[in-house]
Amino acid sequence: MSGALLQGMLRNGLASPYLLGISAGSGLVIVSFISFGLAQIFMPIAAWFGAVFTTIIVFILAKSENKISVERLILGGVALSSLFGAIQATLILQVEDGRIQAALTWLIGSLNARGWSEIKITWIPILLALLVGLFLSKQLNLLALGEELSTSLGNSLLRSRCLIGLVATLLAASAVSIGGLIGFIGLVVPHFSRLLIGNDYKYVLPFSALTGGLTLSAADLIARSGSIEIPVGIVTSLLGAPIFIIILYKRSSKKIGMN
């Protein structure tokens, strides 16, 4: 749902929690905790705050007069992601060999050794954000019409984008604080949802949430089925990247055919 919200808000099919720096903020906090040997029990909460804090910075950079600039929002997210990625790499190079594996597992994404203790910390923001997100379909459908038409129909671009960004951040930050930086779920699943049920966000949002959970469960099953368990983030990337390339190819073919 986080990916679907961001793609609808920015009207950009490439939008995802990675694009706005949400995942990078969590990743930096996680690597910092592991590098400096801080209490691991507080890592999920710290990762959650890291993602929220990063998003706040990105939105501050994107605010122009009384509106949120989409271009500045994307550029700010990319810039912070690059900066935090460089800091992460620097920290990993300085840590002991025993901690490198733990840091990489979080950065790649894994559900190994995750249980109800992590769920107890994040279930309230996840449930709250899911419920609020379902009521944002009207704003997303209006944004899909274009900024001028959306504004003429009484939709506040600043209020809508801030609220959508907040909900998407809460969802992504909560997920990252549990499983790490599992890639391609938030990017590919919304595309798959729109291909199956159309572009009405009244149906895309709940379908994306359901399909995302099922996709991650299936990827985790594949990750555990071999003789050696691998991080689920590797499986989602190996499966997600080709699927996303196929979707892009089919869409480009349709555009060429229409022209």
Architecture overview:
Strand 1 and strand 2 form a beta hairpin. The protein has about 260 residues and is mainly alpha-helical. The mean pLDDT is about 85. The protein has a two-stranded antiparallel sheet with strand order 1-2. It contains twelve helices and two strands; from the N terminus they run αααββααααααααα. Helix 1 (about 1-10) crosses helix 10 and helix 3 runs antiparallel to helix 4 (about 70-95). The chain has one domain: ABC transporter involved in vitamin B12 uptake, BtuC, CATH 1.10.3470.10.
Short description:
The chain has a single domain, classed as ABC transporter involved in vitamin B12 uptake, BtuC, CATH 1.10.3470.10. It is 77% helix and 2% strand. The protein has 12 helices and 2 strands; from the N terminus they run αααββααααααααα.
